Amino acid sequence: MFDLPLPHDHGQFMERSLELAHMPAAADFQTVADVFKQLGDGSRIRIFWLLCHCEECVINLSAMVEMSSPAVSHHLRQLKAADLIVSRREGKEVYYRAAESERAQLLHHMIEDLMKIVCPSAAAEEGARP
């Protein structure tokens, strides 16, 4: 993939060639950037975190985060486009929850680690242990 030497030879051509040969494509890094872009809004992170712990409709989410339904719907569309949440319809109501994907779980744990908070389900398990 990278057979040409770099403009400045620091004596590490073979090592760099091996590293660059295994580097993911730019599109792969863009996927990560797109996910992080979705989390660039505190309200969206808050909604995502809530949906990691429950399944809710827009009206209830709006009350929980004290935002208008259209604002919450906007955030939900963006989270869904990033494949971080999923939805299901029951009659006229649509319910949202975090996707059961590795990406969503990693972000869930990253948010809690950065904020130094304990996941409510983990706290409940800790309380149940003898």
Order of SSEs: HHHEHHEEHH
Question: Which secondary-structure class do the elements indicate?
Answer: mainly alpha
Strand order of the largest sheet: 1-3-2
Shape call: elongated
Report on the biggest sheet. Answer: 3 strands, antiparallel
Q: Find the count of extended strands (DSSP E, 2+ residues).
A: 3
| Uncertain residue ranges | none
Average pLDDT works out at 83
| Fraction of residues in helix | 55-70%
Percentage beta strand: 5-15%
Number of helices: 7
Radius of gyration: 21 Å
How far apart the termini lie comes to: 56 Å
Description of the structure:
It is a single chain. This protein has helices at 13-21, 26-38, 42-51, 58-65, 69-81, 102-115, 120-128; strands at 56-57, 85-90, 93-98. It is elongated and about 65 Å long. It starts with 12 loop residues before the first helix and ends with a helix. α4 (58-65) crosses α5 (69-81). By secondary structure, the chain is mainly alpha-helical. The longest helix is centred in the last third of the chain and has 14 residues, at 102-115. It contains 7 helices and 3 strands. A 3-stranded antiparallel sheet has the order 1-3-2.
Topology:
Blueprint: H1 13-21, H2 26-38, H3 42-51, E1 56-57, H4 58-65, H5 69-81, E2 85-90, E3 93-98, H6 102-115, H7 120-128
Antiparallel strand pairs: 1-3, 2-3
Could you write a compact summary of the structure shown?
This protein is 58% helix and 11% strand.
Which properties best describe this structure?
about 130 residues, mainly alpha, three-stranded antiparallel β-sheet, elongated
